[in-house]
Amino acid sequence: MMHGPLSEIGLIEVLQLLERGGRSGVLRVTRTDDDPPHLMRITGGAIVAIEPDAGDHATRNALVDRHVLSDTDARDDTGVLLRPQARAMRAKLAVRAVTTMLHWSRGRFDFQEAPPAEGPLSISTDDLVFALVAAETRRVELASELAEFHLVPAFAPADLLASGVAPLLSPLDWRILDRVDGVRDVAELAAVLDEPLEEIAERVQSLQAAAILELQAARNNPAVAARMALEAGRYEEAAQLLRDRLAAHPHDAEAWRALGLAEVGAGRFENAIDAWQSWRSDEPSRSDEAQALMQAARTMVEALRDARD
Amino acid sequence: MAGERDQDVGIVAALGRRLASANATTLNNFAWFAARHGEHAAALDAARRAVSMPDAPHAALRALERLAAGRTDGILLAADDAAPAGRRPAGSPLAAAVAAHRQMEAVMAEACYRAAIDDPRLAAAAWNGLAVLHEHRHERVAADAAWGRALASGSVAAAHNRALAMLRRGLPHRARAALAPWLERTPVPAVLHFLAGYAALADQDPGSALPLLAAAAASDPDSARAQFTLGLAFERTGRHDDALAAIRRALLLSPWYLPQVWLLERDATGTLVELPADSVDSDPGLHTDDVLLTLGRSLLQTAHLGEALAVFDQVLAHQPSQPAALFHRGVVLAKLRRYDEAFDDWETVGRVDPGTEIGSASRRHARSARQLASLFAGG
Known about the structure:
The complex is a heterodimer.
Chain A: E1 2-5, H1 11-20, E2 25-30, E3 38-43, E4 46-51, H2 56-65, H3 71-76, H4 84-102, E5 108-113, H5 125-145, E6 152-155, H6 158-162, H7 171-179, H8 186-193, H9 197-209, E7 213-216, H10 222-231, H11 235-248, H12 253-265, H13 269-282, H14 287-308
Antiparallel strand pairs in A: 1-5, 2-3, 2-5, 3-4, 6-7
Chain B: H1 2-18, H2 24-36, H3 40-51, H4 58-68, H5 93-102, H6 106-117, H7 123-136, H8 140-151, H9 156-168, H10 172-183, H11 190-202, H12 206-219, H13 224-236, H14 240-253, E1 261-265, E2 272-276, H15 288-301, H16 305-318, H17 323-335, H18 339-352, H19 357-378
Antiparallel strand pairs in B: 1-2
Helix pairs in contact in B: 2-3, 2-4, 3-4, 4-6, 5-6, 5-7, 6-7, 7-8, 7-9, 9-10, 9-11, 10-11, 11-12, 11-13, 12-13, 13-14, 15-16, 15-17, 16-17, 17-18, 17-19, 18-19
């Protein structure tokens, strides 16, 4: 049995210890008491399963979300998880989950010895670290090339788009093209597609090389400029830019969401509630998220009113 | 909003031009993209072109199915290393068409057949399926044109189906004429022997039907259809014992079968799939149900209850309220002590045929069955 707080010993050290010792068992990682635990099955020091992050359910869902597996097949096809595509997706989910956990500085881990067991993964901690370092290095290079990922992809003009040889595009390329709207920057595209930033950045660059996409500077784009203002804490500027954007595009759900954030930043909670109501109307699929934020803002309104009283 | 829509149209059109010579996977993925941008026609065109290629991924068949049915959701992206549909059991536009046809998803089936027509290896079989589809929809001109293309290949399935189409149009003599040249070949496929016999029977010529049906049953002894129709021919020629024997052989092979089926080919090797034809409205000359009732009663009298039940079930499959079949099935069920079911049958007869002797007998039987059923329920 081995356990302790992540504030004193990071997960990377824990995993390296287990790998060096060729240990087998279950490593339970919990961030807070309210969060569900993440269970890593370790066999001979290697990670062979991560639940729920890279479990069967998560893998099926990820394939469905990426439009490479139908709901029906996900539900009925028992062999679907044996396909190479599913194996790759599970590994990707696992690496992402571990990468996220490696950054945690709070929470705890508990390792319980158990007999070696097989699992669908085989991740060596040392290999993972090398891969993460390589990805980080590539990310820094790409950030420099793509203005900190704030360049905005847009489709090339029609005559250019229609000319040239037929390119070979991956499913990820098509998902990128599907989401390109001349408003989202590269970072937002990665977030909305739920894919690693450096992977999206590289694909966007190759689509640019194929004369399918063009990259526009962020300053030409009010939405991106507003987001940059938000990130820099310039809330009044951000709110004004977003209102300008919404005057021209009244159903831009993301702009309504960001306006709510800007209004909160500026201390105008009632305005934030109004903005998020519009966000909820324009993006019903995220109504729970909007509702939670509105409730938080209402609490703040009441708290401030009480404080004034 | 109109500006954004125009922009989408322009992007899809430009990409479509760029991808004119793309491979099947890229076309499938472009169909996905176009569908998500509301460009249904462009998506459908791309999916059709994708499935017409020999290396079409399975996702392309699915895309075509969805788009042909007017759906734009549920389309999947394919990777370049995805297994082509042809390597999968269900994999070709023709297989997709036949699958859709069997589900009576006509729009989808037609789209897939038309995609298959572009492939020279599949064209004849696709024309055959398309002709059947037109027959279903009573589009006779289109059907005749498609039959012409299908028959040019010398396909047995097409010859069979064309003759069946004539039968179903109430033209048994034309069905016989269409099959006659095939009967001079060696060997004659059992399905054609059978249909020629069936057509002769429907053409009120049981004497000619008998040898044809006997030949069909001899070359395919497991064909319940051939045995059953042979039984009908015996009955019509007055050979009642032979009729009963043939019908019982048919029932042993399968208590559930269809007298008429279309033959569809699902791949280039000519693997046949049976598609049930609708009820036999177009050949009243056969009087199938009368013969079945006679045989059912014979089986009931000789205490062959299981076979009798199967025969009456056959009649009721065609005519769910046929009083005599319901009444006698009730008797069989009561003998089998299945009183609840017997009660249901007799009560139905009493309701649908109240003024007749069989109706009043049924009501009496129903009362008894109800009492018995209540005893069993209490026990």
